[in-house]
Design goal:
Layout lengths: L1 E5 L4 H10 L5 E6 L3 H9 L4 E4 L5 H8 L4 E4 L7 H4 L1 H20 L6 E7 L24 H14 L5 E6 L23 E3 L3 H13 L6 E5 L6 E3 H12 L22 H7 L6 H12 L3 H16 L3 H4 L2
Parallel strand pairs: 1-2, 1-4, 2-3, 4-5, 5-6, 6-8
Antiparallel strand pairs: 7-9
Helix pairs in contact: 1-7, 3-5, 5-6, 8-10
């Protein structure tokens, strides 16, 4: 099949490309022509790339032309969606609208897989876990408003659509991707981790499945990956030699994380392979030789990380 991936050079997109290798699909990538994206395309040996902007209908139409499946990953996530809400809305809602319009314009409209988020459930720590698709959507910020609007748009589009709501997908190159958002989740909050490679497998299997269309799935790592934020933060930091950060650096207001009921998604997509301990091992593999330099630099690294916490800055 001819498969288009929007936003293919981010965390999840990279994992999907990894899983699609060898499956025999004709893969096209659509992304902004930034220097980092061009380097990623070259590194991943992607042969078919359409460079463009998801906000421009003509660019999206050119990318969608001739495709049988569209996997729509392109989005601005927190904290970027909070820093520039107007830009995020143009990309997240406007871009999704452009994708839907381009799909509908094809002589044979391609099927559409949309990446959504568990954040749509809002803060639910006061409820008994796990979250299910019967739980209501609760809009709490720009990002969840965008995702809710996009899911509604897709439901009303008349197209063949599958929606996958992801749990906590952390990049393997986490040391280069830590942002202030990690401090907003209380250490006592439940959170369901899912390995980025498992998310890639879930998407790849969705492409090949006849059972996903018209359905929404919760994508998490399963019972073995149902953690509390303290463990999610402490294990990687301890493993690389930085050490756990003080409790005072973290917020106490419940965040939009929780454990998920993934029985249905696992039955259909068969993607849950890795535990959080596997992630820590794989993350250390990415860190590689740089781990030796962390010891002498530990105080500086800890200082730099703690500067990202608004709770310690007193703002």
């Amino acid at each position: 099949m001819k498969v288009l991936i929007t936003g293919p050079f981010g965390n999840v997109g990279h994992s999907l490309l990894r899983e699609l290798a060898g499956r025999g699909h004709d893969v096209r990538c659509f992304d902004l022509p930034t220097a980092s994206n061009r380097r990623a395309a070259k590194r991943l040996a992607v042969a078919d790339v359409v460079w463009g902007d998801i906000r421009r209908p003509a660019d999206v139409l050119a990318a969608v032309a001739g495709c049988e499946i569209v996997v729509h990953l392109a989005a601005i996530i927190p904290p970027g969606s909070d820093k520039d809400p107007a830009m995020a809305e143009a990309v997240n809602i406007g871009g999704t609208s452009n994708v839907v319009a381009a799909v509908a314009a094809q002589p044979v409209p391609p099927k559409l897989i949309y990446a959504s988020s568990l954040a749509l459930f809002g803060p639910t720590q006061h409820l008994a876990p796990p979250r299910t698709l019967a739980d209501p959507i609760s809009v709490t910020d720009h990002y969840t408003r965008h995702k809710a609007a996009c899911e509604q748009l897709l439901h009303e589009s008349g197209q063949q659509v599958a929606i996958l709501r992801f749990g906590a997908v952390i990049p393997l190159a986490v040391l280069g991707a830590i942002d202030p958002l990690m401090f907003e989740v209380p250490l006592t909050d439940r959170i369901e981790f899912v390995h980025t490679w498992d998310v890639g497998l879930a998407l790849a299997n969705a492409i090949d499945s006849s059972e996903v269309w018209g359905r929404t799935f919760l994508i998490g790592g399963g019972p073995r990956c149902q953690l509390y934020q303290r463990e999610l933060i402490s294990k990687p930091l301890e493993a690389v030699g930085i050490g756990m950060l003080p409790d005072a650096a973290f917020g106490t207001t419940p965040y939009h994380t929780d454990w998920l009921d993934t029985a249905e998604s696992q039955a259909v997509l068969q993607y849950q392979r890795f535990t959080f301990d596997d992630y820590v091992r794989d993350m250390l593999g990415v860190v590689g030789w740089r781990r030796r330099a962390i010891g002498p630099l530990r105080p500086v690294i800890r200082w730099a990380l703690l500067r990202k916490s608004r709770y310690l800055r007193g703002t």
